[in-house]
Amino acid sequence: MAKPIKWGIIGLGKIADKFATDLVKVTHTQLHAVASSSIERAKDFAQKFGAPYHYDSYEDIFKTPELDVVYIATPHSSHAEYSILCLKNKMPVLCEKPFAMNLKQVEKMVEAARENDTFLMEAMWTRFLPVIQKTQELIEEDRIGKIKTIHADFGFVAPFTPERRTLNPALGGGALLDIGIYPAYLSLLLLGYPTDIHAMSTFGKTGVDETTSIVFKYPQATALLNATFGSRTRTEALIYGEKGYIHLPERFHESKTVTLYETDKDPLTFTFERETRGYNFEIEEVNNCLRNNKKESVKMPLSMSVKLMSLLDEIRQKAGIRYEGIDS
């Protein structure tokens, strides 16, 4: 029988609730401890998901016996701080995306992981979905030929709650880091780092980017990407090649289906049903890495997180997206 992996969670907002809902469905996996700035929230969360330990201090989670790994689900602005805190305590980390606020912070996280010989991975959960695996297979099998362009978007109407993370610059709010990361990552995964980047943003009342549009140029391809809090978009991805195209339908970053359109052939749809939101796949990846004493994931290595944050930094620079205290 596989060794049970006992998880802790730091930060108990909406994303932590979704993550925990999937985690308790993964075999040989337990939610063991949770930590929040509020003891009431920590207690309620622990009771809801059956965690035996709960704390009102993030540092106290390291007192938990037999804890194997911590998932960090705090706002973007504190990802680096709490990841490094865990790593210095030799605690393996799965940190929510974006990994941090900029490349300098990510490099410090990677350095801490290597200095302490401790596992670290960015929670880019889309990477592990079966539809993304299938999309890569179809491309590798040359079913659509060489990719010529990618179109991907993500948009919804965000309620005006300036104190919440989405629109709060102090918490790393803004469309690019919150949802634009998904189209940007898809292009990076399938085409690599672009040779040229164009980006522009419009800004809302709180100063964060409300809409960011991006164009990546590659030697023989382009990517047209968009993220917005101002409109509900189709939130789909289309990967166009010389011999056909691949469609990831709404909402592409959590889709259960992918359709292949080959020239002069009937479309083929591949369906991957699941009873979870999809976080279970990244949880299983972390579990397997820990059981095999791996310090990083082959599918989502730290080098990819460095590239992704470098890309986001460059997009921010081109679009004029700045955060006080982060950008010098």
From TrEMBL:
It holds the Pfam family GFO_IDH_MocA_C3. Residues 5-121 form the Gfo/Idh/MocA-like oxidoreductase N-terminal domain. It comes from Emticicia agri. The keyword Magnesium does not apply. This is Gfo/Idh/MocA family oxidoreductase. Belongs to the Gfo/Idh/MocA family. Residues 132-246 form the GFO/IDH/MocA-like oxidoreductase domain. GO terms for molecular function: nucleotide binding; oxidoreductase activity. Keywords: Oxidoreductase.
